[in-house]
User: Fold these one by one.
Assistant:
Number 1:
Amino acid sequence: MNMALIYPMFQAAQTRQVLKKMDPNPPFMNTYKKLFNTQPSCSCDLVSEEECELPLIDLSLLHTENASRCKREIAAASLNWGFFQVVNHGISTELLDRARSEQVSLFRQPFENKCKDFSADAYRWGAPTATSLHQLSWSEAYHISLSQSHDHPFKHNTITRKTIEELAASLSSLAHLLARVLAEGLGGDAAYFEDNCNRETCYLRLNRYPPCPVPGGLFGLIPHTDSDFLTILCQDQVGGLQLMKDGRWITVKPNPSALVVNIGDLFQAWSNGVYKSVEHRVISNPNQERFSVAYFMCPSYDSIIQSQAETAIYRRFSFREFRQQVQEDVKLIGYKVGLSRFLV
């Protein structure tokens, strides 16, 4: 064969190998080839009927004569929506921007580096147990335990570690503030959250949703409810978050100045169903990547979740028992059942 033809072909092959090694995206198509071969499209209902702006609450009012009204708005949003947005929340734009910059740099590393440098507990992507495209999440994430007994996944990157820890501390303070307000709205014991939810039990998740080339799209994150008390979400301006409202999916319009808060399963049980843990999901984008950071307010595994209502909807259970039941359901039937397992 003519060497003048062979050399360009060799160069092209080398270039493809270099680009592959530099690619930040997980190998979704190769890893889940069997699913794509048997189900060429997800055929999921990915389109919502409308876009909405979540209830918007100005937390600076908590320090004014309008504090009572602000607290009522938080409780009403938790009851009627299970989701709301907060502004003037006390977390600086500078810190949020710095954290986003560090997050983007982390995720844009070559995929090979991300897999090599972090344990399976810290870096995750896709859905290893998926048996259909409906169970596949087109996303990757760093799960960061805030417990001092765990090795920090960024222990060798001082700037990133300090930024993440600063963000976690700020989100923790905000989560405790909101939990106190919600507990007081029920006439409950706000000290419960100080006693049971701390640095040792809560965690952060850094999310990236790569562009998805699959025709018709896929879930960036499959429909679910959160298995915690409450979640605080810092997201970018690439839309994709949807929630279930009045029996239909609606798209949440991103707000550049707000953080999103949602009620988790444990608060729904603790409030005897007053506050709602609402099903939500993320839809993949064919052209743009999406970033978000989620703070999960969780108790210790031995913490008891119990409503103080005279007639309780849910039986008394520990967080450990709840988590184990969720894991068993996912393993056996492919999805989380959640609170309905704990009805009286």
Number 2:
Amino acid sequence: MTQPILELDTLRMVYNTDPGILARLTGRADPPVIAADDVTLKLHPGQTLAVVGESGSGKTTAGRIATLQERPTAGRVLFEGRDVTGLTGAALKAFRAKVQMIFQNPYDALNPRMTVGQSLAEPLTLHRLVPRTGLRAAVLEMLEAVELRPAASFADAFPSELSGGQLQRIAIARALIIKPRVVIADEPVSMLDVSIRSGVMNLMRGLQRDTGVTYLYITHDLSVARYMADRIAVMYLGAVLEEGPVETLVTGAAHPYTRLLIRAAPEHRAGKTRRTRIRLPGDAASQAGLPSGCRFHPRCPLAQPVCRETAPALAPVGAGQVAACHFAEEVGRHGLAVPA
């Protein structure tokens, strides 16, 4: 396989909590929040890696670190094989021209006081990619590419005049107009009406075919990940529990958590889907004060004493597939029917 274009290498992200007045008086401060714990993810050129997990899994933290909006407590971000973790100034600006982000909420992603044309022209001006005389043509071309027609009408509109689906297409256009190598897409369709989600997903796939852009696609919905991605990484409480090629992982998941996600996810097809949220037995532990041993054992239907005592490492279980489970081989063969 080719060298990764973007790699998160053994990232650790720890947030120290504000103790508050009561904690200061009693001397009982909350433990730090571990949002990422030894996370390694590799994005290969022209492909999509989907990161899947419940709220609090650390997937959005991984995306923010990938764009250097946040700097990790430990670990590295590599772009085209070069460590970019500590970039500042002009070098950081150049990096962000190559690694862009699409945010979950299209209503917050655009300045309400700027027209669509002005919002799309702004990154071109910021990075000095197009002369002022060519801005209008570049904006109209990008609006055509995201299927907003007539392009001139949309260019002169304000965000308040457009629907959520149209705004998300504009957010996608704004990320892609400077021709980045990588786009981090954080739940880009989760706030859209069910009826228009597939159209936006198909648009993103088509743009990838046309431009060769690489996606890190963050989602809570494994069925969306299956439709969009080449590979899936499953995160839970800040750690990657399983990763592998899409069909290998979906048909032969080797971690109980992944198996439960598959059960919870609706089927997604190009023309139809429905919104869902992952709902699994029990409550997820907090990222502050993780359980001993395997972090998933309090909710795992197959948990054994070893799971409470020893944290399993990510280990190969098949071609290009890794899982962090003491019983990964058995789960891969028999699923959740493995006797506890």
Number 3:
Amino acid sequence: MSDNQPQQYPGYPPREPYGSGYGSPYGESYGNRNGNGQYGGDAYGHQDAYGTPPPADPAYLPSQHHQATLASEEPEARQHPQPARPAAPAPGPAPASTAHLAPNQRARLEGRSPIIPPGMQPAALTAVLAVLLGLSAQLPRPVLAVPVVLLQAVTAAGWFRLNGMWPARQGIALAFLAGLTTDVALLATERADAPVVAIGTLGVWCAFVLVLQLRNRSSADERMYALTAGLTSTALAVLASGQLAAAPDAVTVGAAAVAVATLARALRLPSFVSVAVALVAAAGAGIGAGELTGFGTPGAVLGLAAGGCALIGLRVASYDYPSRFVHMTAGVALPLALAAPAVYVLGRALG
């Protein structure tokens, strides 16, 4: 056979010389070159120009040993089929992070109550402070000023912490100084002038709080929040000084009612039962203290009002998922601080 004649295989049509049948001037297609340097089917099993697959290359045929191994393993695979793996569940939405939420919002999201009462220990401290107020009320007014000043200090610190603002030394100092200034002014004037003294002092110190917040470089929302907390804390400290302006017997009756109501509210009872028991106990304590001091049976009305104010103070101190520090400050002071206006007004009206 001449070198110029194309090599032919039995059973196959004669191959065209290179450069024909492929439509390419280079005589190539996109197939792969076989071991003899000739072009056959490509790697994806495409056919050649005649529509007939090229002969398989012996180099790529499986050996007899490999075929025998596959044949021996096939029955065993049929006898012991592999269990089908369950399809992996589709990934659900990732849970939203609660790190940026406030504690009370996180508690609501988790199904927990954001209201936590202070408990028995703060109630006991409230009762001790109330006893000090009730006993010192029968002594000269400067003696009564000592527990009142302590009440104002705890009120100012607890209110700022209850609002999540800590440390807030300047705001706490301003609120406490407002209460202290009111105490001094009340000791220097008559009891009948107490409303004018309290309003005047409150107006001056509110202006100081405004000036303090003008120097604040925080955002507008933070400055408004700090201003609100500062004004409220100042007002509470001034209201607590009402214990100095009230009649001595009224202070004793109101302090007894607050002490009993706070202890009764701390008992492990259902909520509505606990409130009812606390109010009844406050009225009873008012009657008892009224009989001892000469205030008389109107002490029941005063005791009921003071006990109601004490429960409001406890509710406020329980809000916003507070910490133990809040319970030991705001939870102790707010019942007595909120009861001071009722003690002053009803003491003058019923006494």
